[in-house]
Amino acid sequence: MKNSVINEVKKLAWITLGIVVSAFGIEAFAIPYKILIGGATGAGRVVSQLTSMSVSSCVLIINVVLLILAFIALGKRYAATIIFGSLVFPIVLGFFEQFPQIRHMVKDPLLATICAGCLLGFGIGVVIRVGGSMGGSDVVPIILNKKFNWPIAPMLYGIDVIILVSQSFVATSNEIVLGILMVMIYTIVANKILLMGSGQVQFMIFSPKYEEITKALIKADFGATVLDGKGAFRGEAQKVVVSVLSVRFMNLAKDLILSIDDHAFMTISSVREVNGLGFTIAVTDEKRAAK
Predict the structure, then answer these.
(1) Is residue 229 classed as helix, strand or coil in its secondary structure?
(2) Per-residue pLDDT band at 281 (split at 50, 70, 90)
(3) 7, 151, 171, 207: which could join 264 in a potential S-S bond, CB 3.0 to 4.6 Å?
(4) Which residue range is the domain that position 162 belongs to?
(5) What does pTM read for this prediction?
């Protein structure tokens, strides 16, 4: 229990760091030069331009609506994973709005775009890497993926394009180009943070509660295989749970395992390449049922 609490505190600390860095990048570099922004922040900016509300207030309202939608469509477990980021991000953004002097840190719009893209990419990458979320527009693709098995990445890009286009009607061509450049930069930086070390990791878990751990991993939509093992020192038979998953879910899986058995012995290794069902081959409902 103690280790679980410590891990949760560490996770919230990393998520908070990612949120603070992202919010600072938007308020200090993107907004002053009217650089087009994707996601819930971009949608909030559109609403802000149509009303007298601040960007942070609009983002908060949009995040709350999407949070309610996630609760209805995906259940309270998923909603709980994004509630922290959904509420804290607009609050931090509103905090930085109180310091207009940070909007004059650079004079060159291109330099501001690069700074905003790097800070946003770092923040997003850190949050996703520890299994967190800043809420926002990624909720809709996840719902459609769960309900219709549509791929998440193309939908995310599609929603960002729609949000960027909606801002283009009140933007200059220079702001549009800078917005596209910023999206490219923060996508590259976020991917570098996520793939730092490896794209996938392999868990090997040794625990007398292997059945509970296996069921929990499968319920969380992670694959798992139970192998027969034998202790070298005492020679006793034991089960070994093996699971390969994306590095973004590493901390989520580790916390899940420790919540069941805080004395579980596990190793986590970087995997160079993964081929097969669930990675290079799509998992259909029939295949899930067969497993």
Answers:
(1) strand
(2) low
(3) 207
(4) 2-194
(5) 0.64
